[in-house]
């Protein structure tokens, strides 16, 4: 299991940068909980991974490129299906909305035209929810797609920001912080140009708060991308 | 000849218009289709409205029922929005249980209701822990030509403004609720959230209010919901190609202007209805 350690020198450097450009924020820059990931833990799926952010944990499995039902096949590219299984009960409307976000993000990242009339299925099993659920789902999906070896044009990672009632911006909130916040914003950032791939928000906020959250998410995404690189490097350096 | 080109190479057909900064139906890149609104379309519902954005037609009916409040919020009523995309509106939708697009749209509307603080849910409560109103908002698309989410938000807002709830008193002796159908009060709407949808073409060109064809050819879709105080209630971009900060800001500015246009429209229609009475 590869775990990240919040690099103190890097953290204080980014905090310093944030202080100069955004005076109102004091301790809210890039404060991610401890995150970790494990790949290739399941034998049957083509790619699998777990992603843990604090106490939130998601297990992802990827099957693909595989056969697709004739009703769902697309003539020139692969069909991406995402299934999110909650801890209890059957997937409901909330899971469908999350599935749509994950599916469209994966469709933009994967090179689907290389596998026409095939299917890529991403299954996400919720293990524990302690806030930042959609972010953890997207991160787990990206690691599983990497593990499956599917060709992608860029990687993606996701960061959640919560705006508290006093206006403070908290990154990677826990479930308690999410409940007490006035707005919750989740962004998926791409690895090449650091632009926003996916945005899902609840609660009301001003345009300035949105821009601040995007800037904070872009900064935090650099940490997560570095973690992807390190964990894959570590894994493949062992295989000779 | 143009019809043949459109069928054979739809993307190239649309690109040739976008190069000249216009679209295949003659609109500018930032122009919305003509929007019409009709209130009280369903006489048996407590509130209803019908909206047409170009060819996209969406109707909403609100039914209010009495129920016990949920145990985690005993002093609040609640709203249950449901978006239905029947096979009638487009050949893309097959009969059967609601598909992903309908469910995602229902969840989006529920999020917008909560984010924008549309109605004070405490006002829907009649007797704490015992009785409250539940508003079932059924939104049905009759003709799908793109831009579903904008139409759903406008029609829901108009139907809520049109809704009238009867007065309910609790009889102290029998402890039963007495509904007085003669006395009806309108709902108090706090905010006016209005959505604007955008489609991104080829990662660079942004068009406003896409039709169904343009939606299927686009590389990303974005919906921005603003309220009358220029605060954002939702920035919904469910994936697709990336968008830079300046383009996002440009979309938000367009959404703010759209909010003013729609608020005026809704205000005008409600005023004409009350003067017609």
Distance between the ends of chain B: 52 Å
The H-level CATH homologous superfamily of chain A, spelled out, is GHMP Kinase, N-terminal domain
Overall body shape of chain B:
elongated
Compute the average pLDDT of chain B: 92
Task: Please work out how many helical segments of chain A DSSP would assign.
Answer: 5
Going by helix content, strand content and strand pairing, the class of chain A is: alpha+beta
Mean pLDDT of chain A: 87
Described by strand count, sense and barrel closure, the largest sheet of chain B is: 6 strands, mixed
Helix content of chain A: 25-40%
Q: What's the helix-strand series of chain B? A: HHEEEEHEEHEEEEHEEH
**How many structural domains of chain A?**
1
Secondary-structure arrangement, i.e. CATH architecture of chain A: 2-Layer Sandwich
Task: Write down the secondary-structure element order of chain A.
Answer: EHEEEEHEHEEHEEH
Rounded to an integer in angstroms, the radius of gyration calculated over CA atoms of chain A is 18 Å
| Count of individual domains of chain B | 1
Q: Which word captures the global form of chain A?
A: globular
Q: Strand percentage of chain B, roughly? A: 25-35%
Low-confidence stretches of chain A: 5-28
Q: Provide the structure class of chain B.
A: alpha+beta
Q: Give the chain pair forming the largest contact, with residue counts.
A: A-B, 35 and 36 residues
GO biological process, one term (chain B): TRAMP-dependent tRNA surveillance pathway
Pfam family, one (chain B): RNase_PH
InterPro entries (chain B): ExoRNase_PH_dom1, ExoRNase_PH_dom2, ExoRNase_PH_dom2_sf, Exosome_comp_Rrp42_subfam, PNPase/RNase_PH_dom_sf, Ribosomal_Su5_D2-typ_SF, Rrp43
Subcellular location (chain B): Cytoplasm; Nucleus, Nucleolus
């Amino acid at each position: 299991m590869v775990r990240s350690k919040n690099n103190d020198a890097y953290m204080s450097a980014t905090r310093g940068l944030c202080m100069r450009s955004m005076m109102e924020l004091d301790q809210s820059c890039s404060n991610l909980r401890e995150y970790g990931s494990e790949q290739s833990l399941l034998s049957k799926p083509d790619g699998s991974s777990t992603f843990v952010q604090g106490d939130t944990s998601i297990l992802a499995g990827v099957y693909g490129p595989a056969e697709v039902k004739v009703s769902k096949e697309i003539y020139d590219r692969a069909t991406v299906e995402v299934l999110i299984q909650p801890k209890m009960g059957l997937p409901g409307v909330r899971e469908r909305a999350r599935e749509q976000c994950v599916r469209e993000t994966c469709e933009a990242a994967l090179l689907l035209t290389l596998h026409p009339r095939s299917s890529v299925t991403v299954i996400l099993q919720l293990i524990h929810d302690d806030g930042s659920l959609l972010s953890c789902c997207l991160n787990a999906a990206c690691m599983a797609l990497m593990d499956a070896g599917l060709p992608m044009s860029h990687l993606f990672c996701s960061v959640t920001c919560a705006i508290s009632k006093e206006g403070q911006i908290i990154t990677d909130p826990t479930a308690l912080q999410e409940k007490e916040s006035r707005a919750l914003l989740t962004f998926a950032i791409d690895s090449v140009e650091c632009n926003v791939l996916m945005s899902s928000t609840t609660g009301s906020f001003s345009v300035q708060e949105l821009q601040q959250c995007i800037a904070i998410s872009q900064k935090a995404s650099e940490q997560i991308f570095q973690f992807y690189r390190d964990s894959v490097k570590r894994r493949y350096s062992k295989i000779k | 000849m143009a019809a043949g080109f459109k069928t054979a190479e739809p993307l190239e057909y649309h690109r040739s218009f976008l190069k000249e900064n216009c679209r295949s139906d003659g609109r500018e890149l930032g122009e919305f289709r003509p929007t019409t609104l009709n209130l009280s379309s369903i006489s048996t519902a407590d509130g209803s409205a019908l909206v047409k954005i170009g060819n996209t037609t969406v109707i909403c009916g609100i039914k209010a029922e009495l129920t016990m409040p949920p145990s985690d919020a005993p002093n609040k009523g609640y709203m249950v929005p449901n978006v239905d995309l029947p096979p009638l509106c487009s050949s893309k939708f097959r009969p059967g249980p609601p598909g992903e697009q309908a469910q995602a749209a229902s969840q989006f509307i529920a999020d917008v209701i909560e984010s924008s603080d549309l109605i004070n849910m405490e006002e829907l409560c009649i007797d704490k822990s015992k009785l409250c109103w539940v508003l079932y908002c059924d939104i049905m698309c009759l003709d799908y030509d793109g831009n579903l989410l904008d139409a759903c938000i406008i029609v829901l807002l108009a139907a809520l403004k049109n809704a009238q709830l009867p007065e309910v008193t609790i009889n102290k002796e029998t402890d039963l609720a007495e509904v007085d159908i003669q006395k009806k009060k309108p709902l108090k709407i706090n905010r006016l959230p209005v959505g604007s949808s955008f489609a991104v073409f080829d990662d660079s060109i942004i068009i406003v209010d896409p039709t169904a064809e343009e939606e299927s050819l686009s590389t990303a879709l974005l919906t921005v919901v603003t309220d009358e105080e220029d605060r954002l209630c939702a920035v919904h971009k469910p994936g697709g190609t990336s968008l830079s900060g300046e383009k996002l800001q440009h979309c938000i500015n367009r959404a703010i202007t759209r909010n003013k246009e729609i608020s005026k429209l809704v205000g005008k229609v409600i005023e004409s209805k009350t003067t017609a009475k």
